[in-house]
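Before the break, one more example. Copy the sequence into your notebook; we will annotate it together after we see the structure.
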Amino acid sequence: MSKRTLLPLLALLLALPVRADEGLWTFDNLPLDRMKAKYGFAPDAALLKRLQAATVRFSGGTGSFVSRDGLVLTNHHVGRGAIQQVSTAEKDYIRNGFVAATRAQEIPVSGMELMVLTATRNVTTEVLAAGKGLAEAEAAKARRNALSGLQKAEEERTGLTVQPLTLYRGGQYWLYGYRKFTDVRLVAAPEMKVASFGGDWDNFTYPRFDMDFSLFRIYVDGKPYRPEAWLPQATTPLANGNLVMVSGHPGTTFRQETAAQMAIARDAIWPGRIAAYLRRRAALAAFAATGPEAKRLATTARYGVENAIKRAEGMLMGLRKPGNLEKVAREEQALKARLGGDPVLASWDRIAEAAQRQKTLLPEAPLRENLGCALLGRTVTLLRLGTETRLPSEKRLPEYTEGALKATRDRYGNSAPVHLDLEQAQLAAGLREAQELLGAGHPAVQALLAGRTPEAAAQAAFQATGMADPVKRASYLAGGPALDQDSLVAFARVFEPLARAAQLRYQEQVQNVLDEHGGRIAEARFRLLGTSVYPDGTGTLRLTYGPVAGYPANGTLIQPFTTFYGLFDRAAGWGPEAEDGAWSLPKRWHERRSSLDLATPYDFAYACDTVGGNSGSPVVNVRGELVGLNFDSNIEAQAGYYIYDGTSKRSIAVDARAIRQVLTKIMDARHLVDELDGR
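Here is what the structure looks like once it is written out:
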């Protein structure tokens, strides 16, 4: 882009309120003409290929290769579980941070898996053909089985880890092939006090002062991995109005749901989930209060539930905002009018009926979600691996079909450490939640508690279990006396048929209907609009774009950049004791303040369409150079899971210049900055 083009564009952006550019675009269907018309720029095929190859998928988030030796940059909060996993009471890297001075000091993270997308295949024709002419329940099952069979064949053909993917609510079906990496090592992370500065008070707000990054390295055959592509550091300073792009894995969004579905989400689903999150928060707080080690172990889980509460409240705020659902209803009516007398119009009524049944089945959510206990979920998997695999693939639960079976076994065998005390507390909380939602007299509650309190039932389930030990867990697949004597296995044998019944009710009464009729609506929308619209987020690779920009709020304009000056000012303004030290800085930050260039940009706001799952996404300029690291969005943006409003929606990133300065001046990691620079 020439200076002659950039200067008028910058002047326009600075003079007018900026709307965030809408769209979670797949790499195969980018609105390049639209980008070119608006910004005078569109990425070419070579840049897109490099950006895709450099983007790394984390569990629930994103990262990127930033050196030729497999160094991966992501958020601290994305890597926090791994950082906590390798910490101990004596070496608490969450509290104190960590830097590997040499590669020999990099810490392996057992069970951690990272993936890079290397191949995609559109299988829409094959999948839709499988369900053609069948009744809706049979059609949904036929499509699932066809997709599972295609997944298995693709894995056998390529050797990749293949994910089946539904886009446009059933309008398209794809297979995404990933290279999986299992030797991942922690390289560096700052203290949580600065990574999550301001704690939950500042979460989903702006201006912001979070140094939310961490560094890992991928190894293959004991040597640092040499990626196909990595992102170089920016060579020119990022400024207000500059166009940026974000490559990442945005999680599930609901923008293509019907107005009836959104009304149920507003009135029942999200109020219910918030209540469940609040119960979980109380249970985790009670566990953390039992001692210093319990408090340390609960850190990541507590952060996660606090984050979930605030995000859900933001979604609910958007659904309740006057005019939002009315806007969806108007757009829906306009689409129906264009469809005339098409039989697909009946699908809106069927979805509305299914949404009402979904509301009725909400109290059974704890049964469908393994009572919120991950280790119970693995134990249920153990039992089902022994029963489901004896059935023909087409009669199995979705996770146990031939295509999905390898991934299910991998999850069961994951070697990440398990903390039994925390798992027991989670199970007790789940049992109490089931008791409150279903009632003490419900047959499932009576079967699980057997006259005991939830706490006593959970204690009995964990009194003699080997499920936390990866070796014993693997041995259980062969059966035998040890399996029969395991207390958690015994509990799971009571729980599994109750969970299965709840899952099947939901599948048959809700999900099959939503899949079938959502697919019919998607197909009709496709006939009218094609791929000129983007699909809802699915946790898979997407590209978004927009300018660095502040926004109007609180009667003023919010600045696009914050600085180190602002960080120290906010810390001083609150003092070290306020809200349990939410705005306190670690001692070394005060000691080394004089070495910092305090005017350096710290975080920045930009007008891109991101949601959860984009955490850790690289923010790049038009040359594909790294300028920042996405870590959050403002509270106004949370409504965007359902209804997009670009007026005040802003994403928030750590500025790459601040990361470099912290590594050099605070963390004594000049060697990592040299690596980022290719030296």
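Residues 78 and 102 are 23 Å apart (CA to CA). Confidence is low (pLDDT under 50) at residues 1-16. Try to locate both features in your own notes.
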